[in-house]
Every structure is written in structure tokens, then in C-alpha cells.
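Work Package 3 (structural annotation) set out to generate three-dimensional models for the target panel prioritized at the project kickoff. During this period the team completed the workflow that converts sequence records into C-alpha cells, so that structures can be stored uniformly alongside our sequence database. As a representative example, we reproduce one entry of 216 residues exactly as it appears in the project archive.
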Amino acid sequence: MIKLFKTKPKEILNPSKDFQDFMTNYFTGHPMLRGRGEEDITVWERLKDDELVTAKDLIIDELDKTTETAYMRAAGIFRDKRAIKKLKRIVRKVTAKRYCYERLYAAKVLFDWVGYSKYLKLLDDTLHIGGQWTKINLDYWIKGLNRTDALKYVFLLLRDDDSFVRWNAYGALKNYFNKGGQEFEETKYYTGDEVYVNDKLFEDRLEELKHKIQSW
């Protein structure tokens, strides 16, 4: 059931170019623009007065109807307190297995915004059962975490049976410690299939990596 505003969003007559850009990015443009995370978030710096108020109202209303992360991202940018309850509802109501990514995304926006205390518990409960897309976004999930927690999730996914997940986990590790770009041979040394299938070699490489990290 669609929930309606108690007060209908103000209609914008003769919208500015900035408001038209907002509508294109979030409502009238191709859905893949939002699906790929390519919406122009600079629009939130340009909207003013009634147009900004209406834009916020429309996004907050949309949080009742969808789990699209573009609207969660927007809420995390303009940070209207009305969105907090709606983001928490997404975390609470969506099915973990089917919407693991969306659920974690809502929790991460809350964590970055209000220090959401349930975020790490959600990572513990759902990251390992998430699909490839959820796992390869580890770089985002660990941003802002303390070193101990970040490393826990990195090493969880460095042990994943999907080589692409392991590859991205190593990239997330390097990004977390600001160690420069991800190099092919270096990454392959720790995450390649020929290493992963050899249990002893794989464990030795991970131990080697742990020692390396101690100096970072």
C-alpha cells in the first residue's frame, strides 16, 4: 500500500533547470541511471528554497515505496530527520536473503549519519549470505569502521569461494589503508584460484598478509 503525505508536496511551477535535472535523475530518467548509481548528486548543492523542500519531500515519500538505493543515497546527502524512521523500516522489514544489499545499504546510510548501532550486527548476519554484488561492495561497507572490524570483514571475504569476491576484498583492503592502486600480480598472489585450492598455501598466504598489514 502506498503511504501518502499528510501534506502534499508543493507543486513546482516553472521549474528551474536544477529541478528539472533532479526529476530526470530520480524520477523521469531511465531507471538504469539510478540502478548503476550514476545519478548526479551535485543537484543537492544546487536546489534552493521551495524546490529543495519539494525535492526532499518527494525522496522521503519514495522511501515508503521502494528499496532503490538511489533514494537512500539522497537521504544520506540531505539528511532530513524524517528519513531516519523510513530507513530503519527498510532495515527491519525487507527480507535479508532477497534484499541483502538494499538492507545493508539502508543500515550503512544510517551508520554514517547517526551511528546506527545495529549496522555491524547486520554485517555479521548477512554479508556472508549475500550475493556477489553485495560482497564486491565491501569497500563501501567497511568505510568508516575501525581497523579491527574492517579487517574482520576483509578476511571473511578473502576466504570466499568466488575468486572475484576475493579479488575485490583485497582491493577493499588496499583502499582502506590507502595503499595505492590494486596490482594484478600482487592481488593474484593472495586471491588466485591456484592459491585458493591449495589449503596450506592459501592459509600461509593469508598469514603472510596479516603480518604485512601489521606494518601498515
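DSSP finds 15 helices and no strands in the chain.
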